[in-house]
Amino acid sequence: MAISTLSALKQPVAALSIDEAKLHTFMASAIPGFPKTSTLSVLQFSHGQSNPTYLVEVKAAGLEATRYVLRKKPPGKLLASAHAVEREFKVLAALGKVTTNTGGKIPVPRVVCLCTDSSVIGTPFYLMEHVNGRVLQDVNLPELPAAERSAVYTQLGSVLADIHSVDPAAAGLGDFGKVDNYAERQVKRWKRQYDASAIGEGKSDFMEQLAQWLQANIPQTQPRGSIIHGDYRLDNMVFEGNSTQVLAVLDWELSTLGDPLADVSYCCMPYQTMPGMPALAGLDMENLSEGIPTESQFVAQYCTRRGIEFPSNVWPFYVALSLFRAAAISAGVHRRSVDGNASHSNAALLGPLVGFLAQRALVVAQGPPLAPPMPPAGTHVLPEASSAAGLFPLPPRALQFRDRVAAFIDEHVMPMEPHFIEHAASTSRWKIPPYLETLKAKARSAGLWNLWVSKGMKDLLLSREEGIPEELLGPGLTNVEYAAVCEVTGRSLIAPEVFNCSAPDTGNMEVLSRYGSREQRAQWLLPLLRGEIRSCFAMTEPAVASSDATNIESQIRREAGGHEYIINGRKW
Question: Which residues form the Aminoglycoside phosphotransferase domain (predicted)?
C-alpha cells in the first residue's frame, strides 16, 4: 500500500505534544526569511517507531503555506547512543552536497536547522523541508504492475549502492564513525542495548545463543569506511507520485561509517520475515510477486552497481547480524511501550518479535551460503565443450552424439529461445507453447531422445519385456558420455526439455524404472518416456524449492535431560 507523505497524521498524545508557541519563536529566529506574523500548526506522523516525527505547517497572509518535518528525541530516560538526531542532521547536511560517481545526487531532504536546546520543546530536534511524494509501505507492492515492482527494487538497490560509494572524507564525514572492526562493535552494541532494555515479552534465550554465535563467527575480512544508513528499507524511501524515481531517503538516525554489507543485509530483512508482522512485515516468499527479485538477484544487482564481488560465504553472518539488531531494536521499542513513552500505537506488539527474530537468525546462521543468481541466457560467452574426460579422450560415439546435439541446438533450439523467454514472462507462462512440442518431435525423430538413459537402465527395462519401445530408451550412453552431452544442453534454457532430459523428470523416471511396480511403470513411466507428461519432486515445506531435500529447514532438537524434543519448522 502506498501512502502520501501528507497522510497518516494525528494529534500528538500528551507525552509527545509540542509547545507550538516556543517552536514558532525558535523558527522565527533560526530560519532566514521566516514570516514572523505567521501561524504554525503541528501534527504527528503515525508511522515511525524511534524518533517522534511531526509535520509543521507555517501559514502567513498572502503567502503559500510552507511545510517542514520535525524530528526529535523522545522524552524520558534514553540509552546513550540511541535517538541521535544530531548525527542524523549532520549526515543529511553533508550528503545533500554530494555528487555521485554517475553525476547524480544522493536523494535526501534539505535540512533547515538543528536545535540542541531541550528547553524549546523538551528534547533536541531538527527541521527539514517536507518532501511531497508517496511511501510504499508493503514490500510486496501489490498495487503496482510487475514492471514497476522491478523498477522500485532496482532503485532501492541502486540508491543504496550510490550511498556506499560516497567518499566519507570528501563529504566531510571522515569523523562520522570508526571504520575498523565494525561487525564486532555492532554485536557488542546491540547486545548492550538489548541487555539494557529487554523485559517481559521482550526477553528471549535465543538472543543469548545468537550473540554467542555472532561473536564466534565475525568475518576475518570486512569492507570498511562506507557511509551506511543503518535502517535502509523500502518504507524509508519517498518516491515520486507517478513514477519510480526516489525523491528522498529518510530516517538516518542510525547512520555511521562501517561495513556496507550490514546495510544491504538489513535491507533484505523482508526475505527473512513474514507478511503481516508488526514493523517488520516480510515478502510472501511462497507467492513472490512478479517483478520482485529474489534475495540473490537483489544482492547481485547491488554488487554489480558497486563493482564488488558477490558475498556468498559471509552473507549468513550479515543476515544474522541484521536480525539480531532488529530484535534488539524491537526489545527497546517494547520497553518504551511499557514505560509509556512509545511513539507508535503498536509498539507493545514488538515484544514477542524478539524471540522470533533471534530464532530465525539462528536458522540462517546454520544454513548454506547465498548462491549467486544464474546469469540470463545470452549474457556470457559459452565455453568450448569438452573433448576429454579427465586425462582420457572421449570415445568417438560420445563425440558424435555431442556434436549432433550441438548442431541441433544451434539450428532449431536457439532461434526459439527468445520466444520462450518472452513466453515465460507473460500471463500464459503456465501453458506449454506449441513450438516446444514441435521441437521435441524433431529431436525424437532425429534419434536425440532420452539421452540420459544409461546402458544399464536400458538393458534392465528391455529385459522386463513390458512393451517399452527400444527407440524410447536412447543410445545407452555411459554417465561420462552423457556428461559431455550435458555440457552442450546446459547452454540453453529449453534444450534439456527438448531432448526429454530435464529434471525432475529424469530422476523420477529413474525411480520408476528401478523401484516402480509394473502398473506404475505403465501408468507413469511410459508417458514420461514419450514426453507426453511432466512430473515433479514435491517438497514438504512451503518455503523450500528445488529437488534438493537438504534445503528442508525443519529441525528437531532434544532438550537437556533427553525427555523432550523441540521441533521448529513449517510443513504444508
Answer: 42-276
Which triple of cell numbers denotes residue 18?
Answer: 509540542
Q: What distance in Å separates the CA atoms of residue 276 and residue 324, rounded to the nearest whole number?
A: 20
The alpha carbons of the chain give a radius of gyration, in whole angstroms, of: 30
The vertex-54 CA angle with 50 and 55, nearest 5°, equals: 150
CB atoms within 10 A of CB 342: 25
Rounded CA gap, 42 and 164, in Å? 35
**DSSP class of residue 410?**
I
CA distance 572 to 554: 12
Same domain, yes or no: 523 and 557? no
Least confident of 136-140, 440-444, 490-494: 490-494
77 and 7 co-located in one domain = yes
Query: Looking at the 3D structure of the chain, how many domains does it have?
Result: 3
Same domain, 523 and 571: no
- Looking only at the bridges linking them, the beta strands covering 388-389 and 392-393 are antiparallel
What is the per-residue pLDDT across 360-371, written as a single tens digit (0 to 9) for each? 999 999 888 888
Written as nine digits, the cell of 454 is 544409461
Please indicate whether residue 310 or residue 179 has the higher confidence score (pLDDT): 310
Domain that holds residue 511: 388-530
> Which triple of cell numbers denotes residue 293?
527479485
144 DSSP assignment:
S
- Residue 371 included in any domain: no
Whether residue 204 lies inside any domain: the answer is yes
Look at residue 376 and tell me whether its pLDDT is greater than 60.
no
Q: Measure CA 568 to chain center.
A: 23
For the residues 121-147, what does the mean pLDDT come to? 94
Edge-to-edge strand order for the sheet containing 53-59? 9-10, 39-45, 53-59, 66-72, 125-129, 111-115
Assess whether 419 and 552 both reside in one domain.
no
Residue listed under C-alpha cell 502398473: 519
Cβ neighbour number for residue 3 with a 10 Å cutoff: 14
Report yes or no: 546 and 563 within 8 Å, Cβ to Cβ.
no
